[in-house]
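Case study 2.
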Amino acid sequence: MKISRKSSITGVYRTREVKVKPKDFEMWEKGYVSIHEAMPYLDENDRTFILAGITEDEFRQAFSSEISNIVSDRF
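Prediction:
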């Protein structure tokens, strides 16, 4: 199913093919169930794209320095 979303980080519109059952997507979109309940078979990247329009690369670029600082932080 082709899904279009606007990135909550950059504002860029993207369309992506996500292997989701239309009925499951509809149930989530109407608010009947959470995304995890409706589509437990999706991976985190697909769920993030559906929820926030963010791709894996975009997330990595936006937060790589913060993640690096957390990992290298010393007490």
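Residues 2-72 form one domain.
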